């Protein structure tokens, strides 16, 4: 059951399978939601970046970019809300990549790790890091490579450095299929000035497909899934000042599906952390509709809205007091990939 999404995606990436129609969800509190320009094509399994007021979507699994129903993307897109009426094309990645961790820091975009098809399968875990300085570079350049292949992790920029945490690495010599990977607790930080990766206190929990956001100088890592146990609701908080972790309240029980979420997205506004969407596979699977909010003073979650288009494999970023939810898929697994960009105003 835990591998359903990957099995479906493998078939689509090979040119088989078919797209399905979306689910219907009840909506409420629509006054807090608005639409931003749709992406030029549907894309999921993305970790968008925010740099100098511009949103960037890099790589992922996309429809409409080849003859295959779903293919690994090398496309990079940019949108400056309030300035651009539509997404614009950026230089393409040198290698099509899905699940790259994309971070903006000090004028530079980073596309970190992810999966390619270089070893014959659609899930070849990579250690490559690509960098681009928008407006200055015509092409992506190779950045400081990870110490080893690493994907389905989370990343956050904090105090001039980039933290990468949890995720999956090859568990043996093979590295072409998702089943060749294992969940890890790894935590590395990149100092761009030094150009090297350093190990920090590992996450207490090994998991993949979690979500992360920075709030009040701390990194929150929320939910995700494990191969052996399925979705997890765990919420852990990293303090860079002490290089240590604490536990916070886990995600509550949702209205539908098991507790916990894989492939969700997170962002913070002020003193509140928000998480969006995600998927589950049990009993036929589905996509979570709740928007959960967590506040440090109470260490408690509250369902504050539902998503107009519930999705997993999406990205989220806070900009000017609003949160942009980008792309993803409206059904569990590799079907009903979305070009939606919907904006939540807390």
UniProtKB/TrEMBL annotation:
Segments traversing the membrane: none
Family matches, as Gene3D superfamilies: Kelch-type beta propeller (2.120.10.80)
Pfam families per record: Kelch_KLHDC2_KLHL20_DRC7
InterPro entries in UniProt: Gal_Oxase/kelch_b-propeller (IPR011043), Kelch-typ_b-propeller (IPR015915), Kelch_1 (IPR006652)
Protein name from the UniProt record: Kelch repeat-containing protein
Species this chain originates from: Glycocaulis albus
Lineage of the species this protein comes from: Bacteria, Pseudomonadati, Pseudomonadota, Alphaproteobacteria, Maricaulales
């Amino acid at each position: 059951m835990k591998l359903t999404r990957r099995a479906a995606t493998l078939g689509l990436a090979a040119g088989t399978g078919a797209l399905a129609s979306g689910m219907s969800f009840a909506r409420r509190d629509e006054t807090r939601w608005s639409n931003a320009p749709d992406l030029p094509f549907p894309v999921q399994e993305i970790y968008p970046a925010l740099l100098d007021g511009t949103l960037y979507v890099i790589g992922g699994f996309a429809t409409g970019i080849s003859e295959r129903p779903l293919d690994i993307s090398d496309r990079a897109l940019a949108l400056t809300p309030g300035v651009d009426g539509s997404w614009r094309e950026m230089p393409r990645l040198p290698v099509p990549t899905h699940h790259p961790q994309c971070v903006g820091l000090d004028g530079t975009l980073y596309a970190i790790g992810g999966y390619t098809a270089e070893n014959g399968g659609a899930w070849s875990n990579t250690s490559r890091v690509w960098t681009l300085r928008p407006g200055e570079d015509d092409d992506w350049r190779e950045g400081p490579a990870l110490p080893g292949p690493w994907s389905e992790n989370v990343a956050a920029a904090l105090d001039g450095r980039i933290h990468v945490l949890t995720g999956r690495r090859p568990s043996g010599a093979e590295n072409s299929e998702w089943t060749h990977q294992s969940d890890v607790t790894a935590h590395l930080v990149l100092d761009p000035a030094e150009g090297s990766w350093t190990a920090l206190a590992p996450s207490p929990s090994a998991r993949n497909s979690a979500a992360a956001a920075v709030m009040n100088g701390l990194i929150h890592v929320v939910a995700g899934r494990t191969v052996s146990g399925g979705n997890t609701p765990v919420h852990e908080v990293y303090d860079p000042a002490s290089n240590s972790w604490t536990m916070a309240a886990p995600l509550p029980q949702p209205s539908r599906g098991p507790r916990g979420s894989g492939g969700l997205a997170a962002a913070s506004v002020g003193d509140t952390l928000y998480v969006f969407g995600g998927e589950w596979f049990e009993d036929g699977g589905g996509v979570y509709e709740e928007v959960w909010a967590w506040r440090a003073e109470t260490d408690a979650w509250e369902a504050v809205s539902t998503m107009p288009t519930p999705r997993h494999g999406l990205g989220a970023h806070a900009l000017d007091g609003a949160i942009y939810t980008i792309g993803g898929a409206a059904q569990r697994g590799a079907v009903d990939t979305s070009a939606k960009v919907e904006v939540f105003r807390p």
